Amino acid sequence: MADILHRIGIKSSSIDDVYRALTTREGLAGWWTSNTKGEGDQVGNIIEFRFGAGGFDMKVTDLNAPDHVEWTVAAGPDEWVGTTVIWDLKQDGDYIIVLFKHLNWKEPIEFMHHCSTKWAIFLMSLKSLLETGRGTPDPNDVKIDNWN
To answer: For the whole model, what pTM was predicted?
Structure first.
């Protein structure tokens, strides 16, 4: 199994604001994809994320407000189905630290490399949304190749 791991600090934001950006349709649409349906505020909910190149359905599998969000990929590319996305949040001085994990890839294929870079881009969009009030969700994100 292979994993994608990222760490980012978000300044000038409360941990509750970051948690809401990860658990509400409005928050998720503000940094990941503007085509988001569903709410991530209840365990068992399905959140639908659609992009120009396809999409994902995430099942909310664990929540511990305000510092933990966990999803399991219920539908999407074969490489994603059954993987787990975890967001752990903690206060560190003026920053909320986001420890991001996309776990249990079957193998580190080229698509995983692409997804790791895209996760980093979207984490920067999350940071921008919370620090400036404006993120860069799909379709306004940085495109890195033909996969988008």
So the answer is: 0.96
